[in-house]
């Protein structure tokens, strides 16, 4: 229950799980009820406050109810002024927080209400619907180069700009990292390999101490809804002598030459993971 003290007596009550205090002088305004983090009907405004020192109040206006997830402040500009501040001790389940401010002006029972609400919601970025397809070019347990091809299928309803996407192939170097090299032998995207960027990065995870990241320039174009990008054929090798590298300890490797959706090769949209599982 909300406890109140005033010169007159109010005909409306407010129920809340938190504590609040109300003070005011009775006059000709309507009653105001405020409910915080709960559902409760506002008062009908009573009979205006029956005045101690203020005399008989005017006929009360309609009650105003404001519900918020944090705090609510209501005020009347008639002769009755009430300010209620409530704080809940429970935590919100939703990631949305909102605040509402209501103002009521009543003279002799009339009322006008304005309300402004601002809210903020946090959540993951929206990512497009897509699928990474992979096929090995070298399937042996050991090879002089890690050779594979990849392409992206757009499974959504809108086109995706290739320049917004990056692909990561995760592997264990097995060689001196300073000697790592890569090549793009062919790409079916607009402009071919000239529009495919490639950079090595150190990593930490199961069967991966590095990844090769493929990116695309703006000139590479986009993938239409339901379509597949042109394949890119990539090789990773060790300097000019092509030292043998183990593929079976590479997170992204699969010994298949058929196009296969691969969750071990990750795709990012504007830097956010959109496909696959990182090691």
Structural class: mainly beta
What's the gyration radius in Å? 33 Å
What percent of residues are in strands? 35-45%
Shape: globular
- Please list the strands of the largest sheet in the order they lie side by side: 11-15-8-6-17
* Number of E-state strands: 19
Largest sheet data: 5 strands, antiparallel
Helix content: under 10%
* Number of continuous helical runs: 0
Average predicted confidence as pLDDT: 69
Distance between the termini: 55 Å
Low-confidence stretches: 1-125
Order of helical and strand elements: EEEEEEEEEEEEEEEEEEE
Task: Give your account of this protein's structure.
- With about 280 residues, this protein is mainly beta.
- It contains no helices and 19 strands.
- It has a 5-stranded antiparallel sheet, with no helix packed on it. Strands 12-13-10-18-19 form a 5-stranded antiparallel sheet, with no helix packed on it. Strands 3-4-5 form a 3-stranded mixed sheet, with no helix packed on it.
Q: What keyword list fits this structure?
A:
single chain, 279 residues, mainly beta, globular, disordered N terminus
Produce the secondary structure layout.
Elements: E1 3-6, E2 21-24, E3 72-76, E4 96-105, E5 112-121, E6 130-136, E7 142-143, E8 145-154, E9 160-161, E10 165-171, E11 180-187, E12 196-205, E13 208-216, E14 222-223, E15 232-238, E16 245-246, E17 260-261, E18 265-269, E19 272-275
């Amino acid at each position: 229950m909300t406890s109140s003290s005033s010169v007159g007596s109010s005909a409306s009550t407010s129920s809340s799980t938190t504590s609040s205090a109300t003070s005011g002088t009775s006059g000709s305004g309507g009653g105001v009820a405020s409910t915080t983090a709960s559902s409760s009907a506002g008062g009908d405004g009573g009979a205006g406050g029956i005045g101690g020192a203020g005399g008989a109040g005017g006929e009360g206006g309609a009650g105003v109810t404001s519900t918020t997830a944090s705090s609510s402040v209501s005020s009347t500009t008639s002769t009755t002024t009430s300010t209620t501040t409530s704080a809940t001790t429970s935590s919100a389940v939703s990631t949305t927080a909102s605040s509402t401010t209501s103002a009521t002006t009543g003279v002799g029972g009339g009322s006008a209400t304005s309300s402004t609400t601002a809210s903020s919601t946090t959540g993951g970025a929206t990512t497009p619907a897509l699928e990474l397809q992979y096929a090995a070019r070298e399937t042996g347990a050991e090879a002089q180069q890690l050779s594979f091809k990849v392409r992206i299928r757009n499974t959504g309803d809108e086109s995706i700009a290739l320049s917004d996407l990056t692909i990561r192939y995760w592997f264990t170097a097995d060689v001196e990292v300073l000697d790592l090299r890569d090549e793009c032998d062919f790409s079916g995207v607009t402009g071919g390999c000239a529009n495919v960027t490639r950079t090595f990065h150190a990593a930490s995870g199961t069967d991966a101490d590095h990844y090769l990241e493929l990116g695309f320039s703006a000139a590479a174009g986009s993938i239409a809804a339901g379509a597949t990008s042109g394949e890119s054929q990539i090789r990773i090798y060790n300097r000019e002598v092509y030292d043998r590298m183990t593929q079976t300890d590479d997170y992204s490797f699969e010994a298949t030459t058929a196009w296969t959706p691969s969750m071990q090769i990750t795709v990012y949209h504007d830097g956010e993971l959109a496909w696959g599982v990182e090691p």
